[in-house]
Amino acid sequence: MNRQAQAVILFLFGGAVLKASLGDLYLRYVKEGLRPFLIAAGLALVAAAVMTLWYEFRKPAASGAASSGADSAEGDGEHGGDEHADDHGHAHHEPRVGWLLILPVLGLLLVAPPALGSYTAGQSGTVQVSADSDYAPLPEGDPVRVSLLDYASRVIYDEGRSVTGRRLALTGFVTTGPEGVMLARIVVSCCAADGRPIKVGLDGGPVVDVPAGTWLEVTGRLSAKRGKDPVNQADIAYLEVEQWKPVAAPKQQYE
Predict the structure, then answer these.
(1) Domain spans of the chain?
(2) For every one of its 255 residues, what pLDDT tens digit does the chain have, with 9 covering 90 and above?
(3) Closest Cα to residue 222, out of 173, 152, 175?
(4) 118-246 has which fold?
(5) Which phi and psi (to 5°) does residue 77 adopt?
(6) What is the Cα–Cα distance from 18 to 38, expressed in whole angstroms?
(7) With 19 labelled, which of 33, 55, 72, 166 sits at a CA distance of 20 to 30 A?
(8) How many C-beta atoms lie closer than 10 Å to residue 98's C-beta?
(9) Cα–Cα distance for residue pair 175/132, rounded to 1 Å
(10) Where is the signal peptide (predicted)?
(11) Dihedral through CA 155, CA 245, CA 247, CA 234, nearest 10?
(12) Which stretches of the chain are DSSP H helices?
């Protein structure tokens, strides 16, 4: 692989990063706040590729002009001309394994993997929610929309005091557990590589009979039921279901 090929792959990789970050595809890999850094990285890669190509295409003309005087001084000796070609005329090629760098480029350009979902939730234990020293009152609204992570934290560490008596709307995808259907979302700190599910059990109400991975908006109230995740024995909060309905997957699927 020569310098020109390296620059082309670098250009394609930078373009793929820009294509993902200027749309919504990047949300399947990282959190929304990292978008400016992805755009900056993509622009830097494209700029480096363009500068490399400019330098490589400019170099032959410059080297040809510089060597014209040297060629005339050496004369027409066959042996001298061969030595010059051997010493300076042979291009240095990088190992062919470098072509494997094109695989992640093709992956970004041609493949759009789905966000982590029900399979990941079924194989991983629920997030160990952290305690907050002060749970602020819920905003006005009926029902009030609450994230799964916030609901689980309020129920497990605040004993549900801040959600008691309120109708709540939770959105997530369906996953199955040992005690029935649960609602889940993937929580990420930085990117999908560290994603872990947060699970909330569904108790009572109309039976949720949809395939795993279906996104639902579930309305209900605090349930006194608690459970344990069989994967990591973490506590699981439950919601007493009043109604549910399928919804489209949100643009930002991670919490």
Answers:
(1) 3-110, 118-246
(2) 677 888 888 888 888 889 888 888 888 888 888 899 999 999 999 999 899 888 888 876 655 555 554 454 454 444 444 444 444 555 555 667 767 777 877 777 777 778 888 888 888 888 877 666 677 888 888 899 999 999 999 998 888 888 999 999 999 999 987 778 899 999 988 888 888 999 999 998 888 889 999 999 999 999 999 989 888 888 999 999 999 999 999 988 998
(3) 152
(4) OB fold (Dihydrolipoamide Acetyltransferase, E2P) (2.40.50)
(5) -65, 130
(6) 7
(7) 55
(8) 14
(9) 27
(10) none
(11) 30
(12) 3-22, 35-74, 78-84, 102-110, 118-123, 148-157
Token look-up 């929304």 returns 32
pTM of the model: 0.73
| Pairing between β-strand 196-203 and β-strand 180-187 as defined by DSSP bridges | antiparallel
In this structure, the chain runs to a length of 255
